[in-house]
Amino acid sequence: MIDRKAIREALLARRQMLTRETDLSQLETVELDQTRVGRLSRAAAMQDHQMSLELARRREAMLEAIARTLVRIDEDPDYGLCDDCGEAIAPARLALDPTQLCCVHCAGKREQGSP
Q1: Contact 42, 59 (CB under 8 A)
Q2: Which long-range contacts (CB under 8 A, 24 or more apart) does 66-72 make?
Q3: Per DSSP, what are the bridge partners of residue 88?
Q4: Rounded average pLDDT over 50-72
Q5: What phi and psi, each to the nearest 5 degrees, are found at residue 88?
Q6: What is the pLDDT of residues 66-83, one digit of tens each?
Q7: How far apart are CA 38 and CA 24, in angstroms?
Q8: DSSP 8-state symbol, 90
Q9: What DSSP designation does 72 have?
Q10: Which band of pLDDT confidence, cut at 50, 70 and 90, is reported for residue 102?
Q11: What pLDDT does 33 receive?
């Protein structure tokens, strides 16, 4: 049996942390300095900028997954059951990542492209 309350609290804490990280990264956002001398300096600045954008995209995707999972926990009596086979997702798997939709077996099949 899964502890929905504990999972919900963990998700809320994770959401708060991600929101704080997003707020901090927006404060630290720096425009690319096109006046920096040297190709390597510009290339490094561009790479840093791309990495920042990717981290922001990943944070946003995780925040969306958390929001969907919170709704499922509150409204879906089948939360914790695999979307593919209907079997229970291992509590340890949900404890590690409550946003999981599939059991390990079905997730492996999805990664391999199997139906």
Answers
A1: no
A2: 66/11, 66/14, 66/15, 66/18, 66/99, 67/15, 68/99, 69/11, 69/98, 69/99, 70/8, 70/11, 70/12, 70/15
A3: 81
A4: 94
A5: -65, 135
A6: 999 999 999 999 999 999
A7: 29
A8: P
A9: H
A10: very high
A11: 55
